[in-house]
Amino acid sequence: QVQLVESGGGLVQPGGSLRLSCAASGITFGAYTMGWYRQAPGKQRDMVASITSGGETDYADSVKGRFTISRDNAKNTVYLQMNSLKPEDSAVYYCNARRWVIYWGKGTLVTVSS
Known about the structure:
Helix content is 0%, strand content 53%. It has no helices and 11 strands. Strands 2, 4, 5, 6, 9, 10 and 11 form a 7-stranded mixed β-sheet that branches. A 4-stranded antiparallel β-sheet has the order 1-3-8-7, with no helix packed on it.
């Protein structure tokens, strides 16, 4: 059974930092492209960052220079380091694993507010 479990969300002030983690099980983690998506209330789910099995990364323009995605294949975990957070970064953040199928986690809420 495939499971993606996100953690690390919470309430943070503007300008602050958070690190999200996504622990995967039930898949050959190293073979998958891993991604972080986010969805704010009333909006569509958008890609935030992704990292391929080879370590190539891609970012949404809105987070370039502020967010960093990384993976630890030994721990079957992907991370999203978020710095200089803005109120518009508030959303539910979802982890996904993509190869010829796509798996999703249940999400973790990030709220950026003073």
